[in-house]
Amino acid sequence: MLRVFEGDWYAQVSSGNVEFDDDDAADRLLVKGKELLTQFYHLPPAPVRDSELRFALPLINAATGEVLDVPIRGVIDLVEAEGAVVEFKAPQKAPPMAELPDNVQLTVYSYAYEKLFGMPPKEIRKVSLVRTKTPKIEVQVTGRDAKDYERLFHLGKEVLKGIRTGVFLPNRGNWMCASCEYQADCLAWAGNEEVE
Q: Do 90 and 146 fall within a single domain?
């Protein structure tokens, strides 16, 4: 496993498409990656039902039956045979537990699991392979219920309304900003024009 990781690492780095902060960063990150993979390999294994599970589902308000005319799409990293939904992350620092209940991505995955398999997931697990000086794996467990799905519906409805009316909300400082084609728009944003 480590040889495959290292081979792919060097292929990606030598492609010239990966940039590092300093000359030693690539070597440090390679070591951290190997340490995290080794830790992950030694976690107790669980039977897998599916991985990289793609979905496109209608977003339905269970309270009213209203259905959005645009499906919600995504990819669940891992579904365990016992019914756990698992999302993997690789943050630079351990994520705070306080953010877990409002994590929209996890709500979407729980909703999708319930629609795909006809029952709620046993649990939703966020597994963070934390890239601190001493790499570690942090597992956070949460769940979702009908109120979360109703909130997700309303959030989706408002986002869709905003998109259709041309409302743009910048999201500065996101980890994807460096490669985003709209970064200049976010930086220059000074408000949305009123639509008459």
A: yes
